[in-house]
Amino acid sequence: MNDEREEKLRGEAWENSFQTYALSYVMSEKAKLLGKKRRWLTFLTFLSPLVVGAVALGYGQNDKTLEYTLIAFIPLAISQVILGLWSLVARWDEDFSYFVESSIANLNLSDEFKECAKIPQKDVEELEKRFSVINAKYSERGVQDKKVELSIKDRNRGMRYALIKYQWPCAGCTEKAVSMTKTECKICGNI
């Protein structure tokens, strides 16, 4: 009886480690993408004033070059204002912080579950206590992460990444994934 309980707990710990690892990857990828957008926005924010100012300093205010530069950079300045406004409305900074924090928290949970599954416990009750504590953190994290909508492709990408890490076969095609390359499998290859 104790062996069955222990086996069940270890199985759940491995499964939760897998799931949190997959989610950590997805959140990390979302943070990377949003980080690139934020860096481009910051670059563009400084580009127009610096170029216009440099042209004004270099050629003088009465030179035609400044006039042409202003004509060329006015559309860019307008697009910068629109993008900047959108980044505020879409809460890019908050989302970026959340994705980074979630990625780290889920990776830590994955490691804790893996440790729980791997390390021999003194007895089943000790394993249950340890699993229960980690599982409470997992539930708490799950409530927070439900605020973020993940597409099927996001979920599949996370699962494929975790399949590669854990060297587990896919439940659909029974193949072990070796790369993040798209395959014909509707479960692990639809990335």
Helix content: over 70%
Q: Using the alpha-carbon principal axes, give the shape.
A: elongated
Helix count, per DSSP? 5
Class from helix and strand fractions: mainly alpha
Sheet with the most strands, sense and barrel status: none
Mean pLDDT: 90
Q: How many domains make up the coordinates?
A: 2
Number of strands: 0
What sequence of helices (H) and strands (E) makes up the elements? HHHHH
Distance between the termini: 41 Å
Outline the low-pLDDT stretches: none
Using the CA coordinates, give the radius of gyration.
Answer: 25 Å
Strand content: under 5%
Please sum up the structure shown.
By secondary structure, this protein is mainly alpha-helical. 77% of the residues lie in helices and 0% in strands.
Question: What would your notes on this structure say?
Answer:
With 191 residues, the chain is an all-alpha fold. It folds into two domains: 2-150, no CATH class; 153-191, no CATH class. The chain contains five helices and no strands. The protein is elongated, with a radius of gyration of 25 Å. The two termini are 41 Å apart. The mean pLDDT is 90.
